[in-house]
Write a structure and sequence with these properties.
There is one protein chain. This protein has a 5-stranded antiparallel β-sheet with strand order 1-3-4-5-2. It contains 5 helices and 5 strands; from the N terminus they run αβααααββββ. It is elongated. The relative contact order is 0.24. The chain is of the alpha+beta class. It has helices at about 1-10, 45-55, 65-70, 80, 85-90; strands spanning about 35-40, 95-105, 115-125, 130-140, 145-155. The chain has a domain at about 25-40 and about 75-155: Roll (Thiol Ester Dehydrase, Chain A), CATH 3.10.129.10.
Length: about 170
């Protein structure tokens, strides 16, 4: 049943649902809204990710191998950094289903870099009492350097943001 719902949501030709919420509903996702979280990756994070993913590429552990490949130091796995996107979305919308993600790895992330992950709602469609949301996704390091970007599609059970999370940034 899950595959049928996803296929139905992705192939449907329903028009975009335009929502005009009043200021009385500040914690409801709208097109243009941005959700953010920061993270600093440690060598332990890289080691644990390597174990789970079975990616033991020496670029992530050996300074000499990293320098030979053109990096300053060992790099954080790109997919570990990209894991910020589903983390941000699911922490604000428990029960969210990730449907797809495109990624463009722009620059390396090193242990200790402060990474800001950001998702911005580009398109929201209501289908069968759920919401298909297209997000732009990006990560910047040290406040200004784009390291990763792309787009994600998710199915949200609601547009109400989990109140325990940070507030939505409005553009």
């Amino acid at each position: 049943m899950g595959r049928l719902l996803i296929k139905s949501l992705l192939s449907s030709k329903f028009p975009l649902v335009v929502r005009c919420f009043s200021s009385l509903e500040p914690n409801v996702l709208r097109t243009g809204d941005i959700l953010r979280q920061t993270r600093i990756y440690s060598s332990e994070d890289v080691l644990e990710y390597s174990k789970v993913s079975q990616d033991s590429n020496p670029l992530h552990f050996d300074p000499e191998s990293a320098r030979t490949a053109g990096f300053d130091d060992p790099i954080v796995h790109g997919m570990l950094v990209a894991a910020l996107f589903p983390r941000i979305i699911s922490s604000h919308f428990p029960g969210a289903v990730y449907v797809s993600q495109s990624l463009h790895f722009r620059l390396p992330v090193y242990i200790g870099d402060k990474i800001l992950g950001e998702v911005q709602a580009l398109n929201i469609r209501e289908i069968k009492k759920k919401y298909l949301v297209k997000f732009s996704t990006k990560c910047v390091k040290n406040g200004e350097i784009l390291v990763l970007d792309g787009e994600a599609m998710t199915i949200l059970p609601t547009l109400a943001v989990d109140e325990e999370q940070s507030t939505i940034d409005r553009n």
